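2024-03-11 09:14:02 INFO receiving multi-entity request
2024-03-11 09:14:02 INFO entity count = two
2024-03-11 09:14:03 INFO echoing inputs for audit
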Amino acid sequence: MAVEAEQIARPGRVRTYRKPRPWLATTGLLSPPVAWLGIFFLLPVVFIFLYSVNLFAFLPGTQGFTLDGWRGFLDGSPFLDLFWKSIRMSLIVSVASVVAAYPIAYLLALVASKRKYVLLLLILAPFLVSYFLRVLAWKVILGDQGVINTFFYWTGIRAEGDPVSWLLYSQFAVILTLIYVYVPFVALPIFVALESLDRRLLEAAADLGASRWQAFRRITLPLSMPGVIAAFIFVFIPTIGEYFTPLLVGGVNGTMFGNAIADQFGQSLNWLNGSVLSFFLLVVVGLLLAVFARFLTFRRLATG
Amino acid sequence: MSTEHDGERLERKLGRGDFLKLGALTMGSGVLAACGAEGAPEPAAQGTEGQEERPPIEEEPGNLVVFEWAGYEYPAYGGKGGPLQSYVDERGKPKFTFLTSDDQALGRVRAGYRPDIVHPCVDYLGNWVEMGVVQPWDTSLIPSFADLEPALVEGGQFDGQQYFIPADWGFSSPLYRSDMVEPDGEESWALFYDERYKGKISWWDSPLENFVIWGYVNGVDDPWNMSDEELDEARDFLISKKDLCRNFWSSQTDLDADFAAGNVWIAYSWGGSYVAARDAGLDVVYSEPKEGRLGWNCGFVLMEETENFRHAHEFIEAWSSTESAAWIIPNYAYGHANTAVDLTQVPKDLVEVFHLDEPAAREEPRAHYARPVTSADRARYAQRWDEVKAA
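2024-03-11 09:21:47 INFO inference complete, emitting structure
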């Protein structure tokens, strides 16, 4: 800030008004978001931590420091297994969404030259429908009397009354629905990365005799990696704590970590355990973000 | 993501609100509203012994706030011709705020919300009392109290005091498709564990009931207060059987949709789902298991800090009256705690669903109403149910 102040108050310039105080502007501009984060994010996180060690308690008069919640959770509880299961499901969802979204983004950015923004809007159109309804629609498609099973009956692939029942209320249903929900979301950062690609590089590659596949592999893909990684994070981080989709289509085996947290704060009224699970999730996600962020910056430096 | 939570809230609300539709289906609600409350008996509000320290009703602020179940937003409920008309005429319309689940209501009060009356369900009564936010009712201020179902009244006591006035109730029992399911011998809750119907069963996602059912099926001493060993055994059993379930339902709307779509043939169900499935043209049986049906019951607790002590009692008197029962039963397809209601005012099929003409069917051992459990016991059950779900 001192440097900035000096630059602004460069000698030789005619100054008719008061010496500006950029630190004031900086503080003024920064304090609302910082206060917002502090009050609505950091403070609650501190509260959650206090609940997780029972310094705050749901029932008045029962508080008192204990690590029992943490011990119980880390000592081979089923919730820890559930956490790894959630990570696994999120990984599948993230990778699949990125793979599915890449061609879409590619098409938009590099092939559909004139109408790309119209098409982009079309891809985002599902967001106009409530999340709840979009997930609900999958129940209609995947159910025992749903679109897919009815098709199977009609073609004789399956006998009537012998539906493929793992389509709905299963891990498969959760993963499929999440991929569907996240693909448009994921296409955006990849689209942006591909859009800013310097086309002259591709021309140069062609001039030098590279095939289109080679050009893609050696130029397009590496240069779009920051977008791909950003896209991956966009899916991976929120889906670890996913709650709503497994609730609607997960059945007994598609439950995820977020559902366990909701149950602890909800019907089980176990805020201690709920806070342990939440805080653990927060720490893991925080660590992952830190790692990804490093990787992202590094890639940017290396490629740009 | 806030939209997700809104969705969930909406969903639960629909589950409960669906009874409205049912009520409207079973009978034109307008007609029933007309033959509803025509002035409840005058409440004996003043001069009761032991209440000398309470100011008379005229000195109370009177801005009664009722923290009510979502589903009761139905304008007729708090309006003209509704069950509360006698109160509304006399004291003005209370302010209703809405809860969508017991735990949410507890959480909100925990965070400092202070209505005058709350409408929780009886199995959470222990949590309310232990949180120290409610006080016992003075039943001498509620003339209709004498007409309320004794089993429900007893269930509303905690530490020997009447902290809870029962209001609405219903059965919980296995519902199954009679064209697809052939019970093995007698009607029993054990149908929930029948390997022949793998993938077609839906248990209710609730921390107590699945253990209580296991307890009744296995004849333990007190299914509502099982030992840790019994609970562990039940948990392991439920984990071994959980793959028989298509899902654990949490919203009645979802369950009804799954029944209608043929995804589920056997489910833990409330009366409303039976009516919905039957009206959708399905061949269904609302079972009377040999171990007895379960019963849910919700009612009213009085907040400790209320300044509207007498208003609150008058409100409860209006709710507890026979006029209110004659309105609530057909319009919501719920049972009503008042047993003195004139059954000719109630649609026949609802008399049948709730066995209103057969008191024995509403008593032990044929019916086991939900009862209050302590926070510690809820935690013991809930922890194991969470383990079943996470496994």
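2024-03-11 09:21:48 INFO post-check: Chain B has a mean pLDDT of 86.
2024-03-11 09:21:48 INFO post-check: Chain B touches chain A through 47 residues (CB under 8 Å).
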